[in-house]
Design brief:
The complex is a heterotrimer of chains A (about 450), B (about 425) and C (about 290). By secondary structure, chain B is mostly helical. Chain B has 18 helices and three strands. Chain B has three domains: about 50 residues; about 130 residues, no CATH class; about 220 residues, MetI-like (MetI-like fold, Orthogonal Bundle). Helices cover about 65% and strands about 5% of the residues of chain B. Chain B starts with a helix and ends with a helix. In chain B, about 45% of the residues are buried. By secondary structure, chain C is an alpha/beta fold. Chain C has one domain: P-loop containing nucleotide triphosphate hydrolases (Rossmann fold, 3-Layer(aba) Sandwich), CATH 3.40.50. Helices cover about 35% and strands about 25% of the residues of chain C. In chain C, helix 4 runs parallel beside helix 7 and helix 5 crosses helix 7. Classes of the chains: A mainly alpha (about 450), B mainly alpha (about 425), C alpha/beta (about 290). The interface between A and C is medium-sized, with 20 and 27 residues.
């Protein structure tokens, strides 16, 4: 049976289990003289049976699905004659692919090694057996669970407590998904990064200024080793982020101040959502805008005043990224400014301060920690932003602080290294994970600091 | 005393003008900041729209087509093998030759054949299969023009002057002739909404990407909404105050700010390389986006649950409800509108996301419209990225049009969220 | 005096007021406040003042004077408009968009709401102390120096130091804080914070100081200190204080004004108000029948 069908059958069985156990409890209750003689409501007896029916069988199903393919392929490879045994991971994958293709008929069986054809046949056979076994195992588990749920129904059974415990367990495991995600990110980037640092020393990665990850196909080619000094990427990332913040911080902050302190409710009601439209636009759209509108415009403007502007200049990407971050800063700053108590405003105005004096000398200093937190969050966003730089910044790893030249960033390199065909053991691919690790660690630290600063600030005025 | 007051008041008055100038200046900065932001919104939209609105129309050329059995090599329309191999492009060429009899020479002819899109043959084939009686008959048909012709024709009469690009003088002449005889016109571009991707701009459409987005979002919402709501319920209603709970909270808050590309790396390393989920499919895209949108959904769901006043819980507990019953009967229904709003916003975020999907291979060139969760596919934003990278000028128009479609979806979703929040808002 | 009371019910009277009358059988608001609302050569005078929040009227036709160097207390049940009225006197209500003030308010004969009257300059002359102590998140010194710096009252540092010292001394805080002027004002105790706010207000030598329930957030000992301070300040300043504590009004003020749901019912010498109120509403309030 197909996985989806198995799931449907399981659902039906669970429903049956629910009604049977519920019915049994009601019947028992009647003979005792009413539902109040049961420990729990009939609903809980039903739910308990349904849980027994579905949970173990679903767990079994997923475990099976997770491990059946690796086991089948191991069996297949084991059956192959010595001459065909793979020697590397890449060859292993290739071999499995061709067997798969023969089995599905995409590759004609006449042209290949008969051993592979045999393997393909046994693959089909094994899969069929696997399917039937799986169906049988899962369904019998479900039926057993259902029976157990039915048999155990008794007036003394603490069904409600048991159901609620399972319910809580499910909720807890959902909450833990966040932890597993973080763990998954850490493990995946850390593991591949370690492999990368076996090939390329950490000191070279962190301190060398040469970045050219092209690995030659033949070992006698020039530059066969590639060089992995990430300094130009860090500098490029910082340069673009700096330009972005240079646009976003003043504009975002002043917009927030204007909206919070000056704007009439009507203007605020119109301008705030209009600004937030900028936050809702996908980054790929900004990238398109940067690459096809802003960059050519800057180039032409530069030409007309005699400046050489690269068509993939850091300036174009940075400016557009700044525009993207404006609403982010303005809404965070707006929150923070609104959290400054009205009494401080009154105090200052009551002394005869103008509004701008009140803002500059009282509100801004009071809101500063929160604003700093918001700006840090925005910096972390700028550093991790991908699409704008992929589309508008270049690939050339120049070590420069000139915003008119082309620079590349960490995220651009991750994308370039990983998009397209990859071999999983070349340093070129692994370098992407090392860059990912750097990115993750840096943004994590920034976020952590920023969130704590903002939290402290909130508590101050709560 | 009064004299002293007098002098002090004067002192204050003297500095006032300067202070008011500063006030005005400051206010001006604020207005300028707002104006700049709004200007960016307007610029962005007008730029995209001005670039893309023409993509909804396509240049068609009217030709007299003869379904010549000899040219086609088709004798029996019922024979699918024959029809599949039939030279339908050949009858288009013949029609063109008949229309422009003066054209001679190989180069000029090749140039001429390029007036009509390569896709025209498929249109004719489908027509013939649907109407077998057309074999050896002649009919007048509007056929899709090549993208260069499309770009050229659309730019004729524009202020900047016609965009010539790769359009040779011969072709310009032919177009002029067609214009004169009324055999060339702009029609609604159906292909854009019914086709998958293509290397030929005039045949490329967004249906494949839109379906890919749909399947991906279905996976995302099916996973992230239940998990997110469950996590929020746990944290708000059941979680004990301990280190483990703190750890979960810190994790959620941090994940909300982790760059999206990192989730792509996670998807690549865990789902694809470890669990061997196939690449480029909506299933794995949905999984990655689930992890990415979960923090958003958890945070907004928690806010919704927090907004349910404790008095309602107290009332339910007071009549003997168990914690689970309190949650299922009271908290969840009351918090549902807020949770849904959060979910819609999370989905809008997922719909616009590109970077993590690049990592898991959803950038492949896929012509077929996906039909399920495990068919290779791409999504709208990635399609935009792919087209933006294409050298053909006609793709600029398509890209902008695809962006307009994407933005329309996003605006609809966000409006829905706002309306939902407004309508179901409850004041306790 | 009774003949001043007009017994017809005002048409614009909110529905809630009618109930009060029917149930308590007290008298209707006087068209003109009873007692002695007007004085000879007032520092400030208010005539026919109405205050609206959008459609809602908060103050009805108030006429009252504040004399030079007098302490006038405004009392009344909460929500009676006394704070709103106080905030109209230095145009703090300007910051509330929906708020509209009509009538004639003058300071030394100058119309406060005249077009040429500058609210910033006005507030420098009519200072304000708020209900909750609201020191700025700055040092104690900077808190007091804030106003003088804004208005350019000191040209040299020494001058500023002197202003800070005198203000803190007058506010009775100097000895407590002179060694820690560079510490944040928010680190002081509640009573000290409020005295710091008073020091901040008098640092720009206003002619009138408005106090909006200055002791409501303070403990009795801190309250006593502030009350002493008010008595001391009244030698040099004109003070209007809003309070919901009748005892406080009795202790600190020369005259007392009783507000009831937006109407100024009675103004008189403090002693008279508390011993022989002329209006039934006032009597009902001070004898504790409501409030």
């Amino acid at each position: 049976m197909q996985t989806a069908n198995i799931l449907i059958v399981l659902l039906t069985l669970s429903a049956v289990a629910y009604y049977m156990a519920r019915g049994r409890s009601v019947a028992m209750a009647q003979s005792l003289g009413g539902i109040r003689h049961l420990h729990s409501l009939p609903f809980f007896y039903g739910m308990r049976a349904a849980i027994w029916c579905s949970l173990p069988s679903i767990a079994l199903l997923f475990l099976w699905l997770m491990f059946d393919e690796p086991i089948i392929s191991a069996l297949l490879i084991g059956e192959l004659p010595e001459s065909l045994q793979p020697t590397s991971a890449a060859e292993h994958n290739l071999l499995l692919n061709s067997i798969e293709n023969i089995a599905s008929g995409a590759l004609s069986a006449e042209t290949v090694d008969p051993a592979l054809v045999a393997a393909a046949e046994s693959l089909t056979g094994l899969r069929e057996i696997g399917r039937s076994l799986l169906t049988a195992a899962v369904l019998s588990t479900a039926v057993l669970g259902m029976g157990w749920g039915w048999v155990k129904v008794s007036p003394k059974l603490r069904a409600r407590q048991q159901v609620e415990r399972v319910f809580r367990g499910i909720l807890l495991s959902c909450a833990c998904v966040a932890i597993f995600t973080t763990l998954g990110i850490l493990l995946s980037v850390l593991f591949e990064s370690l492999r990368f640092f076996q090939a390329v020393p950490l000191s070279e990665f962190l301190f060398s200024t040469e970045w050219s990850p092209q690995m030659a196909i033949r070992s006698d080619q020039v530059g066969s080793s590639g060089s992995f000094g990430a300094i130009p990427l860090f500098v490029g990332t910082l340069l673009i982020s700096f330009i972005a913040m240079f646009v976003a911080v003043p504009v975002g902050l002043m917009s927030a101040i204007y909206l919070a302190e000056y704007a009439t409710p009507r203007v605020r009601g119109l301008a705030k959502p209009a600004l937030e439209v900028l936050a809702g636009i996908p980054t790929v759209v900004y990238g398109f805008f940067a690459a096809l509108t802003v960059a050519p415009f800057l180039r032409q403007t530069g030409e007309s005043i005699g400046l050489e502007v690269s068509s993939e200049s850091a300036l174009a990407a940075g400016l557009v990224m700044g525009v993207m971050i404006i609403p982010f800063i303005s809404s965070l700053a707006d929150d923070v400014i609104n959290a400054v108590p009205q009494s401080l405003r009154d105090g200052s105005l009551g002394l005869g301060a103008t509004r701008s004096e009140t803002i500059k000398q009282v509100i801004f200093p009071a809101a500063l920690p929160g604003i700093v937190g918001g700006v840090l969050l925005a910096v972390s966003r700028a550093i991790g932003e991908t699409m704008i730089v992929v589309m508008a910044a270049g690939l050339a790893a120049n070590l420069t602080a000139n915003p008119l030249e082309t620079v590349t960033t960490v995220t651009v390199q991750i994308v370039t290294l990983l998009v397209g065909d990859q071999e999983f053991d070349s340093p070129k691919t692994l370098a992407a994970f090392a860059l990912g690790l750097m990115l993750f660690v840096v943004t994590l630290v920034l976020n952590f600091i920023a969130l704590n600063v903002v939290k402290k600030y909130r508590e101050q005025y709560d | 005393m009064t004299d002293l007051n007098q002098s002090r008041t004067e002192q204050i008055q003297r500095s006032l003008a300067k202070r008011y100038r500063a006030e005005k200046r400051f206010r001006l900065y604020g207005t300028m900041a707002i104006a700049f932001g709004l200007l960016c919104v307007v610029l962005l939209f007008s730029d995209i729209i001005s670039k893309g609105y023409r993509a909804f129309q396509q240049t068609y050329v009217q030709l007299e087509i003869t379904y010549d059995a000899n040219v086609l090599g088709v004798t029996d329309v019922g024979d699918s093998q024959q029809v599949a191999l039939g030279d339908f492009q050949g009858i288009v060429k013949k029609a063109l030759k008949a229309r422009f009899t003066e054209v001679a020479g190989r180069k000029a002819k090749r140039d001429l054949y390029g007036l009509i899109s390569n896709g025209a043959g498929y249109t004719l084939r489908d027509r013939l299969v649907a109407n077998p009686e057309l074999l050896n008959q002649t009919e007048t048909l509007w056929l899709v023009a090549d993208d260069d012709i499309d770009t050229y024709y659309k730019s004729i009469g524009s202020k900047a002057g016609a965009f010539i690009g790769r359009t040779s003088e011969g072709r310009q002449n032919w177009v002029a002739q067609l214009v004169e005889s009324g055999d060339i016109e702009l029609r609604f571009n159906r292909n854009f909404f019914t086709h998958g991707d293509s290397r030929e701009p005039e045949l490329a459409g967004i249906r494949g990407a839109a379906m890919g987005s749909l399947f991906t979002l279905v996976v995302t919402i099916m996973l992230s909404f239940p998990i997110g709501v469950a996590a929020a319920i746990y944290l708000e209603e059941f979680a004990p105050r301990n280190r483990w709970t703190d750890l979960i909270e810190v994790n959620i808050n941090n994940l909300a700010a982790v760059p999206s590309i990192i989730f792509g790396l996670l998807g690549l390393a865990i789902f694809i390389n470890f669990f061997h989920v196939p690449r480029s499919v909506p299933l794995v895209g949905g999984l990655v986006l689930t992890l990415m949108t979960l923090p958003t959904i958890i945070i907004s769901s928690r806010a919704a649950i927090k907004a349910v006043p404790p008095s309602i819980r107290d009332a339910a507990i007071g009549v003997g409800a168990s914690p689970m019953q309190v949650v299922l009967h009271h908290v969840l229904p009351l918090a549902m509108p807020g949770m849904l709003t959060g979910a819609i916003i999370g989905m809008a975020q997922a719909l616009g996301e590109t970077a993590p999907l690049l990592m898991i291979g959803m950038v492949a060139f896929i012509v077929d419209v996906p039909g399920g969760f495990t068919d290779p596919s791409t999504v709208l934003p990635v399609q935009i990225f792919l087209w933006a990278d294409s050298p053909e000028r006609a793709f600029v128009e398509k890209t902008s049009a695809a962006i307009m479609v994407l933005l329309t979806f996003l605006i609809v979703m966000n409006t829905l969220a706002v309306v939902l929040r407004k309508r179901l808002e409850r004041r306790w | 005096m009774v003949n001043r009371m007009v017994m017809n019910v005002a048409i614009d009277m909110p529905a809630g007021l009618m109930e009060t009358e029917n149930e308590k059988n007290t008298s209707v608001y006087p068209e003109v406040s009873v007692g002695v609302p007007l004085v000879a050569s007032p520092k400030m005078s208010m005539r026919n003042v109405d205050v609206f929040y959008g459609e809602k009227q908060a103050i009805y036709n108030v006429n009252v004077d504040i004399g030079q160097n007098e302490v006038i207390a405004m009392i009344g049940p909460s929500g009676c408009g006394k704070s709103t009225f106080l905030r109209s006197i230095n145009r703090m209500n300007d910051t509330v968009d929906s708020c509209k003030v009509t009538g004639q308010l003058t300071l030394d004969g100058e119309d406060i709401y005249a077009a040429k009257m500058d609210p910033v300059a006005l507030r420098a002359r009519v200072g304000m102390v708020f209900q909750k102590p609201n020191p700025f998140p700055k040092t104690i010194y900077d808190n007091v120096a804030y106003g003088p710096r804004l208005h350019g009252l000191a040209s040299r540092r020494a001058e500023l130091d002197e202003i800070v010292e005198t203000s803190l001394t007058r506010a009775g805080l100097w000895t407590e804080v002179k060694d820690r002027l560079d510490q944040p004002g928010t680190g002081l105790s509640g009573g000290q914070q409020q005295r710091l706010c008073i020091a901040r207000a008098i640092a720009i030598s206003p002619e009138v100081i408005l106090m909006d329930e200055p002791c409501s957030a303070l403990d009795p000992i801190a309250t006593a200190k502030i009350e002493e301070l008010i008595a001391e300040l009244s030698k040099n300043y004109t003070i209007a204080i809003v309070t919901h504590s009748m005892q406080q009004a009795a202790r600190v003020s020369h005259r007392t004004a009783y507000f009831h749901l937006g109407h100024l019912v009675e103004v008189n010498e403090t002693e008279k108000v508390f011993t022989a109120p002329e209006h039934q509403l006032t009597e009902a309030y001070i004898t504790g029948r409501f409030g």
